[in-house]
C-alpha cells in the first residue's frame, strides 16, 4: 500500500501531526484528489519554523497558486526571524493580487519596522477584517504612537478586529489625536499607561469587546474617566494591570462608562482596601446586565492587614464566591473569584505554595503559568499540579534562592506532578538549589519541545552524578533551545561538546551572550560550529556584541570561517549591532 491509496480520513489524521507548511509543501499538486483532501490547509496557511529552502519553494511554487483560496494566513517569525523580510520580498507589493480573499492575517514576532511595512502592504484587501499581532516590536517610545495609529487605520480602515497578545510590547496614543476609528469593534492591546486608555476610549465608540493590558508601574497619575464618552456597545471588558497601584475611584469612574457590560474581568494590584472588599465592589458593577465577573486582585497595603477574615466575609453575601491566598503573614493577599477564569496566572511563588485545587479551581482555563520569586523548584509543584492544562510554564528564580531544609525537601519532593500533556514551552530564569528536579517536570511533560534556560543551570545538571535519565529526557524532547551565557567560563570546548551530544535533535537555537567584557559573537560562532556542524539546524540567533566585519557581510564571514563554504546558496544571514541570524 502506498500513500496515495490511503483513504482521505487517514491522510487527514496524519496531517494533524504535521505543520501547515509541511503539508502544502509535500502534498500540494501531487494530484487533484490530494489537492481536494488538503483543501482546509490551503485555506488556512501557517508559515512557521520552516527551513530556508522549503520557504523559498513555497513562495515561488505554492503560495502564488493557492493564494486566492487562502482565508487566514499566519506568518510566524519566532525562532526564524528572517521569514518576515523574505515573505515581504516576494509578496509585499502584491498582497492584493496574490491573496485577494484573505480574511484574517496573523503576524508573530515582527519588529516595528516590519510591522510598518506590512501595514502599508495590506491596503485594499476588501475581505480582511481581522488582524492578530503577537510578541516583539523593538520600537522607540516616540514611534509607539505612530505605529498604533497605522495599525488601527490599516487596510483603509476596514479592520474590525485587532488582537495583540498580552506579551506584545506596549503601545501608546497621541493625546491630541482626534481621529475616530469607528470600524473597530473588538480590540486587545497592551497600552503604555492609563492615560492611553483614557484617550483610546474616545476614539473607538463602536467597540463591543475590549481587552487591555497596562503594566507601567511608574505611572502615579490618578485618573478620572469622563462620563461623556459612554461605550454603549461594549459588552465585554478585560483589564490586566497588576503592576500599577489602582484606587477604587478610578475603577468606579471607569465602569460608569460601560453601563451595558455582560462580562467583566479585572486583574489588578492595589493598596486601596475598598478594591479588596466585596461590599464596595458589588455596588459599582453594572448589575442589570452583568452576567459574568472574573476578579483578581493582589492587595498589599502600606500597613499590616488587620483582618483577612473580614475581607473574606465581605464577599459572603455577594453572588461571587472567592478564594484568598495570603503571603508573608498579613502583609499581602491574592484574592480572586471562583473559578479562576483567566487564561493566565502570574503569581508570586509565596502565594502559589498555598494554592488549593478544591478551593481555587485553577485548572479550568489557565494556559500560561508564571511563578516569580521562586526559591526552589520543589515549591512550584503545588501550583503546577493545580494547572494541568498549561501550555507555557515560566519560573523566575529569586535573587537569593533559599537553602532546602531536609524535612521540607522530602515533603515537597513527595508531590507527584500530574501528566502535563499540553505543556510545550518551559522557561527557567536563574538557578535554584534543587536543579535535579527538572527531571520531574520533564517526565510529566511528554510533549515539551521548547526550553529557555541559563547555561549556569545546564552546567549544574552536567555536574550531578547519576543524572543520565534527566539528560536523556532533554535529548529526546527538546527541539527549540534558548540559553543565556553570563560568564566567559561557560564557553569552552568541553561545554560545547557536551551540549552538542545532549541536544542532538534541536532545530532552532537562540543564544544570549551577556558578558561584561563584550566578547564578540564571532568567538561563540567558532565554538558553536565546531561541534554543531552536523546537527540539522534550521535557525541560529545569537544576541550580543557584533563587529563591523560581521555586520558588513555576515554571509561571507560564515563562508570564510566555517563549514558553510560548501553551502553558499542554502542559507540566509543577517546581522545588526546586537543580533546575528542564520536561516538554513
UniProtKB/TrEMBL annotation:
Task: Report the superkingdom from the record.
Answer: Eukaryota
Q: Which InterPro entries match?
A: F-box_dom
Could you tell me which PROSITE patterns the record lists for this protein?
Answer: FBOX
Task: Please list the residue ranges annotated as the F-box domain.
Answer: 1-49
Q: This protein is called what? A: F-box domain-containing protein
| Organism field | Adineta steineri
Q: What does the record give as the organism's lineage?
A: Eukaryota, Metazoa, Spiralia, Gnathifera, Rotifera
Amino acid at each position: 500500500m502506498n500513500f496515495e491509496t490511503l483513504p482521505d480520513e487517514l491522510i487527514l489524521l496524519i496531517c494533524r501531526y504535521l505543520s501547515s507548511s509541511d503539508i502544502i509543501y509535500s502534498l500540494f499538486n501531487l494530484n487533484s484528489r490530494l489537492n481536494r483532501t488538503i483543501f482546509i490547509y490551503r485555506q488556512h496557511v501557517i508559515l512557521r519554523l520552516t527551513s530556508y529552502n522549503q520557504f523559498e519553494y513555497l513562495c515561488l511554487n505554492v503560495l502564488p497558486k493557492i493564494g486566492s483560496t487562502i482565508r487566514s494566513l499566519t506568518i510566524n517569525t519566532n525562532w526564524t526571524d528572517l521569514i518576515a523580510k523574505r515573505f515581504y520580498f516576494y509578496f509585499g507589493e502584491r498582497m492584493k493580487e496574490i491573496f485577494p480573499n484573505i480574511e484574517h492575517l496573523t503576524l508573530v514576532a515582527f519588529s516595528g519596522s516590519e510591522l510598518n511595512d506590512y501595514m502599508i502592504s495590506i491596503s485594499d484587501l476588501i475581505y480582511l477584517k481581522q488582524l492578530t499581532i503577537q510578541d516583539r516590536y523593538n520600537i522607540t517610545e516616540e514611534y509607539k504612537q505612530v505605529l498604533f495609529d497605522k495599525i488601527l487605520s490599516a487596510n483603509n480602515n476596514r479592520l474590525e478586529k485587532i488582537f495583540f497578545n498580552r506579551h506584545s510590547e506596549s503601545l501608546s496614543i497621541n493625546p491630541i489625536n482626534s481621529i475616530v476609528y469607528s470600524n473597530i469593534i473588538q480590540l486587545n492591546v497592551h497600552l503604555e499607561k492609563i492615560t492611553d486608555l483614557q484617550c483610546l476610549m474616545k476614539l473607538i465608540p463602536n467597540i463591543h469587546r475590549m481587552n487591555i493590558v497596562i503594566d507601567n508601574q511608574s505611572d502615579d497619575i490618578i485618573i478620572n474617566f469622563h462620563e461623556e464618552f459612554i461605550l454603549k456597545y461594549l459588552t465585554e471588558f478585560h483589564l490586566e494591570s497588576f503592576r500599577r497601584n489602582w484606587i477604587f475611584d478610578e475603577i468606579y469612574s471607569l465602569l460608569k462608562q460601560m453601563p451595558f457590560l455582560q462580562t467583566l474581568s479585572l486583574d489588578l494590584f492595589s493598596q486601596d482596601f475598598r478594591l479588596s472588599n466585596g461590599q464596595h465592589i458589588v455596588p459599582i458593577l453594572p448589575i442589570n446586565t452583568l452576567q459574568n465577573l472574573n476578579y483578581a486582585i493582589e492587595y498589599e497595603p502600606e500597613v499590616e492587614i488587620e483582618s483577612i477574615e473580614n475581607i473574606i466575609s465581605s464577599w459572603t453575601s455577594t453572588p461571587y464566591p472567592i478564594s484568598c491566598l495570603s503571603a508573608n503573614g498579613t502583609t499581602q493577599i491574592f484574592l480572586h473569584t471562583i473559578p479562576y477564569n483567566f487564561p493566565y496566572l502570574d503569581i508570586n511563588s509565596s502565594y502559589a505554595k498555598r494554592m488549593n485545587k478544591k478551593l481555587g479551581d485553577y485548572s479550568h482555563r489557565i494556559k500560561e503559568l508564571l511563578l516569580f520569586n521562586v526559591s526552589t523548584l520543589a515549591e512550584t509543584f503545588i501550583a503546577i499540579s493545580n494547572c494541568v492544562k498549561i501550555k507555557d510554564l515560566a519560573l523566575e528564580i529569586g535573587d537569593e534562592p533559599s537553602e532546602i531544609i531536609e524535612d521540607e525537601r522530602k515533603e515537597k519532593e513527595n508531590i507527584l506532578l500530574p501528566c502535563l500533556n499540553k505543556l510545550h514551552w518551559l522557561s527557567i530564569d536563574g538557578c535554584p538549589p534543587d536543579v535535579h528536579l527538572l527531571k520531574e517536570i520533564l517526565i510529566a511533560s511528554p510533549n515539551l519541545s521548547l526550553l529557555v534556560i541559563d547555561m549556569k543551570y545546564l552546567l549544574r545538571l552536567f555536574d550531578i552524578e547519576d543524572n543520565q535519565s534527566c539528560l536523556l529526557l532533554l535529548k529526546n524532547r527538546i527541539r527549540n533551545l534558548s540559553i543565556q551565557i553570563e560568564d566567559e567560563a561557560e564557553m569552552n570546548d568541553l561545554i560545547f561538546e557536551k551540549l552538542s551530544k545532549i541536544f542532538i535533535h534541536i532545530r532552532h537555537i537562540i543564544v544570549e551572550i551577556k558578558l561584561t567584557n563584550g566578547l564578540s559573537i564571532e568567538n561563540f560562532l567558532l565554538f558553536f560550529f565546531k561541534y554543531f556542524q552536523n546537527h540539522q539546524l534550521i535557525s541560529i540567533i545569537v544576541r550580543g556584541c557584533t563587529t563591523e566585519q560581521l555586520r558588513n557581510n555576515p554571509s561571507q564571514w560564515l563562508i570564510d570561517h566555517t563549514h558553510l563554504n560548501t553551502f553558499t546558496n542554502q542559507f540566509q544571514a543577517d546581522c545588526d549591532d546586537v543580533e546575528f541570524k542564520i536561516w538554513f
